[in-house]
Write a structure and sequence with these properties.
single chain, alpha/beta, four-stranded antiparallel beta sheet, binds pyridoxal-5'-phosphate
């Protein structure tokens, strides 16, 4: 078998090898970060599944929006708001299959081979592997009981100009360390100062024995001007509900989120048929949610955002459809297409 070159960077996970042994009778496992299966709310999850299948069987079993089921996005935004991220709108997050997919999306959208990323030493093994798979050089920043040492972190950021800094500020895996409030604010300031994306992975923030942990970086970002633009936040229901459900989410700056989702940047503001050939995509503005429905007006705004397309009306001999327009996907390469669609999404909002 000729495996992809990117796999050369990845060592076999020691943990995965260990997991193979865990089925042996009598083994007491202190190995995996698995919640106790006896704690799963089997009755609750079963009742919720039944209700979903009865109330919306089609939607429950059908493909859904790439960003995730809208009512779930709303619930997650409300959950995060209750923990201090008060200004978080549902469209600022996407639902993922666990926070590991969120990390993978970040790797995919941010990391070119040879890019540097900074993580805590030690940190979550799967993250190191994921970023290495995308070709990153992964650099460790030292930690103490208060989490990442921000003085050392600043030096590393200044020296390496990393593509991103990945932190588990609350009950780090494997360290259990807790980034202090003061350091959290400092990390956000560093993100702005060095214009470096900080990724906060927070699957454990709700699992505390005594005093609640300090607010997440996401919640604190409203106190540090500009920091939300340099912050991504990965959340997960794995440790508080069930890892088997594979539900996590990614909150990220709009441009990054848009690139992670692609076609879905335009949401339900547009509809089109996926062409099976040719050069063109024929799009209609739906006007849903009060979005702009006039393609001529959109074309003007789009030019201002640096993206061009042809409004559809002149293509009709009779009864012109003012909501339609044509996009040629033949000229721009994939990166340019993504950038162009992001600009178009901006024009729609303008
Ligand atoms: C720091 C960290 N991030 C993410 C995950 C995985 O979360 P998920 O099950 O949501 O993919 C874990 C699980 O061990 C973890 O420790």
């Amino acid at each position: 078998m000729q495996f992809a070159d990117r796999l050369n960077n990845v060592e076999t996970s020691a943990i995965r090898e260990l997991f193979k042994l865990l089925g042996k009778p009598g083994i007491i496992s202190f190995a995996g970060g698995f919640p106790d299966s006896a704690m799963f709310d089997v009755a609750g999850i079963s009742a919720a599944s039944q209700a979903a299948l009865q109330q919306e069987p089609g939607a429950a079993l059908q493909y859904g929006a790439t960003e995730g089921y809208q009512p779930l996005r709303e619930q997650i935004a409300a959950f995060m708001a209750a923990k201090g991220a008060r200004d978080l709108a549902p469209d600022q997050l996407v639902v993922t299959t666990g926070s590991q997919q969120a990390l993978d999306l970040l790797g995919k959208t941010m990391i070119n081979p040879g890019d540097k990323v900074i993580v805590e030493g030690p940190t979550f093994l799967a993250t190191i592997q994921c970023f290495r798979l995308y070709g990153a050089e992964v650099i460790s920043a030292p930690i103490d009981a208060e989490g990442a040492r921000v003085d050392a972190l600043e030096k590393l950021i200044a020296e390496h100009q990393p593509k991103l800094v990945y932190l588990i500020p609350t009950f780090g895996n494997p360290s259990g360390a807790m980034l202090s409030l003061e350091r959290r604010k400092k990390v956000l300031e560093l993100a702005v100062k060095y214009q470096t994306l900080v990724v906060e992975d927070d699957p454990y923030g709700d699992l505390y024995f005594g005093e609640a942990p300090p607010p997440s970086l996401l919640a604190l970002s409203s106190e540090v001007p500009g920091s939300r633009d340099w912050l991504a936040h990965c959340g997960s229901l794995s440790k508080v509900l069930s890892p088997g459900l594979r539900i996590g989410w990614l909150v990220a700056p709009a441009a990054l989120l848009g690139r992670a989702v692609l076609r879905e940047q335009l949401g339900d503001a547009v509809e089109f048929l996926q062409p099976q050939g040719g050069l063109f995509l024929w799009v209609r503005l739906t006007g849903k949610g009060g979005a702009l429905a006039d393609a001529g007006e959109l074309a003007k705004r789009a030019i201002a955002q640096g993206v061009a397309f042809v409004p559809g009306a002149p293509f009709f001999a009779q009864n012109p459809d003012a909501t339609s327009f044509r996009l040629s996907f033949a000229t721009a390469d994939e990166d340019k297409i993504r950038e162009g669609i992001a600009r178009l999404a901006q024009a729609l909002k303008a």
